[in-house]
Automatic annotation (TrEMBL):
Keyword NADP: no
Encoding gene, per UniProt annotation: sppA
Biological classification of the source: Bacteria, Pseudomonadati, Pseudomonadota, Gammaproteobacteria, Oceanospirillales
Origin: domain of life: Bacteria
Annotated organism of origin: Marinomonas algarum
InterPro entries found in the cross-reference section: ClpP/crotonase-like_dom_sf, Pept_S49_SppA, Peptidase_S49, S49_SppA_C
Pfam family, one: Peptidase_S49
Entry keyword annotation includes Transmembrane: yes
Cited CDD domains: S49_Sppa_N_C
GO MF annotation terms: serine-type peptidase activity
UniProt protein name: Signal peptide peptidase SppA
TM regions (residue ranges): 43-64
GO biological process, one term: proteolysis
Length: 330
């Protein structure tokens, strides 16, 4: 194996050589020095980047979601001093994600059962998701409120609390948002694709064998007929009515009589306040100071490692792509 010879000083100048040759030697030497410097800087930058990525991953794995104090110490002890328990509900609400019912329900139970927690904050920043997961979380909040009547639940909406995110918020005793938050979108949507015309153009034949005449309902590779569309609209309308019932149950007479509330429209915080969708404008900090009179927060959000969260999100996306049709509060 041959190694490149390290050049630390300029090659000797030959007085008998043409001046062009000596000039070329000087130029090549300077060029070599710049290349060495460039390689060293690139190597240093790679090390810095790798170290930075490792540090970020280490922080995520060891501190959890917000880096704010966890509800449980390393020895498994429960936080004993008076505090406000809060749970993050962020991103798509779906099975297998950190916002699934299986993930959030145990956290809700721990937050309510800790005698030192004086109030429960649901910190919501979600565009919605699964009707099933949203409904299960809603029901659990309502049950725990009944079981622990002395603990109030506040939903605090961040950038967005729409569809399934608002479904969950409706279970809270009071809902607050920023004046620019997006709130509402009380509706149901089913999304799919239609590839039948494309398959015909490229000469691909779809072969589907079924037992049960409607088993291939909404198959994206076959044309959508009127009967199938009418049937599926009935399913969505029924799910929509379930959503409306829960919102009315949670909000009661605070809702305005505006019929547009349940049409799937979305409003900013100021408009939502006028329609009775929220109770006021504010943040976690303002609520803590003005209503709870307590400034200590403890995070009960289930902690998931970075790799697990990434894997679960990929599974949800892949499932949606493969199955074609989804029903969601989006």
């Amino acid at each position: 194996m041959f190694r490149k010879k390290k050049i630390d000083k300029i090659p000797s100048i030959d007085d008998n050589a043409p001046w062009e040759q000596n000039l070329l030697k000087e130029y090549m030497f300077e060029l070599h020095k710049e290349q060495v410097k460039d390689r060293r800087w690139r190597m240093l930058l790679k090390i810095i980047r790798s170290s930075g990525l490792f540090l970020i991953l280490l922080i995520v794995l060891t501190t959890g979601n917000d880096g704010i104090k966890s509800a449980f110490s390393n020895d498994g002890g429960v936080e004993a001093s008076p505090h406000i328990a809060y749970i993050n509900i962020q991103g798509q609400i779906a099975d297998g994600t950190p916002t699934s019912a299986d993930s959030l329900v145990p956290a809700l139970e721990k937050a309510f059962e800790n005698e030192s927690s004086k109030a429960i904050f649901l910190k919501i920043n979600s565009p919605g998701g699964s009707p099933v997961q949203s409904g299960r979380i809603y029901e659990e909040v309502m049950y725990l409120k009944h079981k622990h009547p002395n603990k109030k639940v506040y939903a605090i909406i961040g950038d967005i609390g729409a569809s399934g995110g608002y479904y969950i918020a409706a279970a809270a005793d009071q809902i607050y948002a920023d004046q620019s938050s997006l709130v509402g979108s009380i509706g149901v949507i089913s999304s799919s694709f239609g590839f039948s015309d494309l398959m015909e153009k490229i000469g691909v034949e779809r072969r589907t064998i079924i037992a049960g005449e409607n088993k291939a309902l909404l198959d994206p590779y076959t044309p959508l007929d009127d009967d199938a569309k009418q049937f599926w609209e009935g399913v969505l309308n029924s799910t929509h009515q379930q959503f409306i019932t829960r919102v009315k149950e949670g909000r009661g007479e605070r809702l305005s009589d505006d019929p547009q509330i349940f049409t799937g429209l979305i409003w900013n915080g100021e408009q939502a306040l006028e329609k009775g969708l929220i109770d006021g404008l504010g943040s976690m900090n303002t609520l803590a100071r003005e209503q709870i009179m307590l400034d200590k927060f403890v995070d009960y959000t289930p902690s998931r490692d970075f790799l697990h969260r990434l894997t679960q999100r990929a599974k949800v996306a892949a499932s949606t792509l493969i199955n074609g049709t989804t029903v969601s509060f989006h």
